[in-house]
Structures are given as structure tokens and as C-alpha cells.
Amino acid sequence: MMPIFQRCRFFILGLCLSIVASFCALAEATSPLIVRYPLVKNVNLYKNQSAYFHELFKLALDNSGIDYKLEYVSVPSLPQSRSAKLIDQQVYDAHWMTTSSEREAALLPVRIPLLKGLLGLRVGLVRQENITLGNKVIQSSDLNNFRVGQGHDWTDTQILQANNIEVVKAASTVTLYDMLRKNRIDYLPRSVIEVQSELEVAADPDLMLEPDIALYYPQAVYFFTHPDNIRLNNAIKTGLETAIQNGQFDTLFNSYFAESLKQANMDERRIIRLRNNTLPFNTPLETKEYWYAEALLSSQKNNAG
């Protein structure tokens, strides 16, 4: 049997450790949360999106109810796969990325779509001679009547092919624009939030938006954190939910994208819905207010009825 003085010693040691742990937890809860966020240098083509995500991240933290200090890590323009590795290596703490099963297995997502699914709401670029190309497109199979271009390793390409749409592939967006100019493809689907800025950069009067159809597949962009950074992940989630409830999310969203949606005449387009089998099973598709195109589809059904 253990002597009483040894039992007392272990009891006191355990009590001290418990007190120290409590003080550490209290210090973490009351001290400012240091948050490192990547600031991309020399953003050009997608600077509007980059600025939106940055503002939305700050808005989420401001609405989280926690004291925080935001620090910036300067990085070059880099692919999302590289950004995911930098979060895993804890070079910075959070960034926006398109979701996938693999990404959600490696990092911790905040499952609130930052773009309301607009990355998967696609309008098509055509040459002027093909401006009526979409007139007879009623269903996805009709897209096989012309040549659709997409990138080699894009998720969008996988989605189109899974919907039995034939795709002409290229290495980059720049190459696809060149192929469109040279009549090697007929139709280039681009996100409704990307296409206007791309047309401005292209500065080619022969390229224009096809006016009649849009493609839609749910596509989610989330903020991701390191799996161990539960405190930050919870803060972002709480802040985004609060911003949705108080209307600040929609105010910011509309300030960046309402004009692009207006210029694309989304209310006048037939929306061709496609399956997206690349989405993780726990994507919040049932939360309709998260997805902009769902309201458009609902409106079209009501008008048709």
C-alpha cells in the first residue's frame, strides 16, 4: 500500500498541473488570437476576387466576438495546392480554396460557401460569328453540337466530362482564349464573376458573351485552416454566420459581384444544371441560402409554371 505522504505528493502534483492547465486555457481564451493571412503580391487578373476574400475574412473575424490581431504573410501568386501545403506547414493560418474530398481530409474547412456557388455558374465566351450558338441549347447533351474548351487539369473539365460533355483541353486560360480566337474551339465557359475582367484584359472586339444560356454546378469555395487550429476555425464560422444574419455578408458580396451578375443578364438566361460528383458528401447543399443560383433556378421554375 502506498504511504500516505506519497499519495499526498501525487495529489498535490496533480492539483498543481490542473491549476497550470486552467491558467493556460484562460490565457489562451483572453489573449488576442494571432492570425496570419497570406497577402498575394502582384495580383492582376483576379485582384477583385482576392480583395473580396480579404475583406470577407476580416469581416468574419470582426463578427466572431474574439480579440484578434491580423498579421500578413507576403506570398507570390500561387496555385491552391501550394497554398494548402503552406497552411499544413503553418506558414500562415488560413486561406480560401475550392473544396474537394482530398483537401477536406488534409485541412479543416469552414463549410460556408464564400462565393455562394458563383464559381460554378458559368457563362460562355464565343466569337462574334457564333453569337446565336446557344439558341437551341435546351439540355446538356446539346453542348456536344459544338466544341467546348476547358483546362487540362481543371475540376470543371472533370465535371463536364462526367455529364457526358465532350471537352477540348488546353494547358491554360491564355491558351484557351487563343484557341477561341483561332476557331479551334467554339464555346469557352467561364465563371460569371471572372468573365468580365478577363474580357477587359483580352481586349478583343471579336470575343463576346453568348447571351442565352448558363451552366450551373454547385462549387464551393471555403476558408480552410490547419486541422489543429480549432479556435480560429470556430471564430471564422461564428463570424460568417453572424455576418449572414446581420446582412453584412450580402452587402459585401453585392458590392463586389452584383454588377457582374447584372452585366451577364442572368435573369434572361436558361440555366443548364449539371451534376458535380467531385463535391464532398457533407457539402451543405440543403442550405439553399448559401447558393445564389438556386434562387435563379427556383425563379425560372416559378415563371415556367
Concise overview:
The protein has ten helices and twelve strands. The protein has helices at residues 4-30, 47-62, 80-88, 101-106, 155-162, 173-181, 195-202, 230-246, 248-263, 292-304; strands at 33-40, 68-75, 94-98, 108-110, 121-127, 148-151, 167-170, 188-191, 207-209, 213-216, 221-225, 270-273.
Which residues sit in consecutive blocks of at least 5 with pLDDT less than 50?
A: 19-27
- Please, what is the CATH homologous superfamily of the domain at 32-117 and 219-262? Periplasmic binding protein-like II
| CATH architecture identity of the domain at 32-117 and 219-262 | 3-Layer(aba) Sandwich
The tally of helices reads: 10
| CATH topology title of the domain at 32-117 and 219-262 | D-Maltodextrin-Binding Protein, domain 2
Report helical residue fraction. Answer: 40-55%
One letter per element, helices H and strands E, the order comes to HEHEHEHEEEHEHEHEEEHHEH
Structural class by SSE content: alpha/beta
Task: Report Rg.
Answer: 24 Å
Alpha-carbon distance between the termini? 83 Å
Average pLDDT for all residues: 88
Q: How would the global form be characterised?
A: globular
Biggest sheet character = 5 strands, mixed
Please provide the count of β strands. 12
Q: Classify the beta-strand content into a percent band.
A: 15-25%
So what's the CATH class of the domain at 32-117 and 219-262? Alpha Beta
